[in-house]
Structure to design on (546 residues):
């Protein structure tokens, strides 16, 4: 039996996971997402990542980005490399796609702030 | 002099929610923010996990707070940025506020004030580390500002002191950007951040966590070159002979947050020694009539969803106070016994809002199973079982106190008892 902390939500349920011939048995979860998490964790762990992308604008040198869905845990640093190759020279908005289907993983790298398009009221 | 019903100080998630809800109640609202942009600390919290409770989505900090900014602007709420409040005084039931900004000295008059000033990080000077004073010692929030807003890396090889959430988040962030995080050292025998952050920020990246350890000395002249680590005893004193020198160019401190309440204190608001925030009632009003408090200025929350909720409730209450009640009503203390680290609110207003009271509490010790127990005038009126109660993880509970037939002499006591077969 293995113990895992579910990271799906802030509850952080302590899960007990039993691997038997019939499959994976999960207890300790307060909701069905705990079971989904535990099974993924034992078979193919998935994560999201958030980072920043460089721009050519001196007053906003970076904008926050994230992946639009989960990626395999072992591909985190590969996706980071792709994000670090971006240099933005256009004023993107929140939700804009910077890299569609990054590395063929089925998720996009998206912008998570309107910082480049918002006007400051005093300028 | 411009005249307002509700003046909100602070434009982070608490202040934005407070202003929005007061405006929706029909109040004339003004919000003052000292930084250039609204959004508070969430501007630099680019990691996700915000808004799970409120929106059922895993948003990054900017995505979460920009939703509130949009609503704030749609409601055409007046606001000033780069504006610093220098003085507040109360005269004949009205608050006179002096602030400075690029346009000069500003004076405002308001019937109520909502303090949404957030919290501040504890610094190196507050944790007494021996040695030289080299560059390379940052609070986690400062490091986060460098990386996430300025796009500059403050570290190549770093040590993190303290296992607060921002420290854990920065351990992951710096690792993703190519720095080596040697370890996270926590003086207490238990981690202070959320368990899910220990998993997704440290375990995922193989970053070790050392409990009952602290940094006792820093080395380096121009720049930090190493730190000395020692084990600590039960009283958190370094144990001689356990010292170990770790080479690093950066020391990041995640050693606690303290609500910012200089303005509250200048108004004569009483503070709670446990929360370090104002003593307030279920309407988020402090012991000074017309002064409300919410968000991390009131007590340090671990989820922004609760910060927004408290802002919303405080905004609604402030609007109601200046419009309809005008008096504070009768109230009784909500006594939390020694099993709780703290309980917010500290008082219960018997005349307004008793039917839906939101309680926020933290228990003092980790309990696999515990029962929250509320007693009114010697009788048990409510019990609730909890699993995995941990001091770093705040609990929220909505209660209807209206049904307990309380009066001005009622005594309410809240405690957490061990045990119970919680399922």
């Amino acid at each position: 039996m293995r113990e895992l902390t579910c990271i799906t939500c802030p509850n952080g349920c302590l899960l007990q996971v039993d691997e038997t011939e019939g499959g994976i048995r999960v207890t300790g979860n307060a909701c069905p997402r705990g079971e989904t998490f535990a099974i993924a964790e034992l078979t193919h762990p998935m994560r999201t990542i958030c980072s920043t992308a460089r721009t050519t604008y001196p007053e906003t040198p970076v904008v926050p980005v994230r992946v639009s869905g989960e990626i395999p845990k072992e591909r985190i640093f590969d996706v980071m490399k792709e994000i670090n190759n971006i240099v933005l020279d256009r004023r993107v908005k929140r939700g804009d796609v910077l890299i569609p289907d990054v590395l063929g993983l089925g998720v996009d790298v998206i912008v998570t702030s309107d910082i480049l398009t918002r006007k400051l009221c005093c300028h | 002099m411009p005249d307002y019903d509700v003046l909100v100080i602070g434009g982070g998630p608490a202040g934005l929610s407070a202003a929005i809800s007061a405006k929706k109640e029909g109040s004339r609202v003004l919000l003052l923010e000292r930084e250039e942009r609204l959004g508070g600390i969430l501007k630099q919290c680019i990691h996700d996990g915000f808004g799970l409770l409120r929106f059922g989505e895993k948003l990054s900090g900017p995505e979460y707070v920009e939703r509130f900014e949009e609503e704030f602007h749609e409601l055409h709420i007046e606001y000033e940025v780069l504006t610093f409040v220098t003085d507040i005084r109360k005269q004949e039931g009205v608050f006179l506020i002096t602030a400075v900004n690029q346009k000069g000295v500003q004076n405002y008059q308001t019937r109520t004030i909502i303090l949404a000033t957030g919290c501040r990080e504890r610094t190196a000077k507050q944790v007494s580390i021996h040695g030289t004073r080299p560059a390379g010692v940052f609070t986690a929030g400062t490091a986060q500002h460098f990386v996430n807003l300025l796009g500059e890396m403050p570290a190549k090889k770093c040590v993190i002191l303290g296992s607060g959430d921002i420290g854990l988040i920065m351990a992951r962030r710096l690792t993703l950007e190519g720095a080596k995080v040697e370890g996270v050292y926590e003086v207490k025998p238990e981690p202070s951040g959320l368990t899910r952050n220990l998993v997704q920020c440290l375990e995922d990246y193989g970053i070790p966590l050392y409990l009952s350890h602290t940094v006792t000395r820093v080395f380096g002249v121009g720049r930090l070159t190493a730190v000395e680590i020692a084990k600590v005893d039960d009283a958190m004193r370094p144990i001689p002979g356990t010292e170990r020198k770790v080479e690093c160019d950066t020391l990041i401190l995640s050693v606690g947050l303290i609500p910012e309440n200089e303005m509250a204190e200048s108004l004569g608001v009483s503070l709670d020694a446990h929360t370090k925030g104002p003593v307030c009632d279920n309407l988020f009003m402090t012991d000074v009539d017309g002064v409300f408090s919410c968000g991390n200025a009131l007590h340090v929350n671990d989820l922004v969803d609760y910060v927004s909720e408290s802002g919303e409730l405080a905004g609604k209450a402030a609007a109601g106070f200046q419009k309809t009640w005008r008096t504070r009503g009768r109230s009784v203390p909500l006594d939390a016994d020694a099993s709780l680290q703290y309980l917010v609110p500290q008082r219960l207003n018997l005349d307004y809002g008793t039917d839906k009271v939101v309680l926020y509490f933290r228990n003092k010790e980790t309990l696999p199973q515990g029962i929250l127990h509320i007693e009114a005038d010697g009788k048990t009126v409510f019990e609730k079982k909890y699993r995995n109660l941990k001091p770093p993880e705040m609990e929220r509970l909505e209660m209807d106190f209206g049904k307990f037939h309380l009066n001005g002499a009622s005594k309410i006591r809240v405690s957490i008892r061990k045990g119970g077969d919680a399922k």
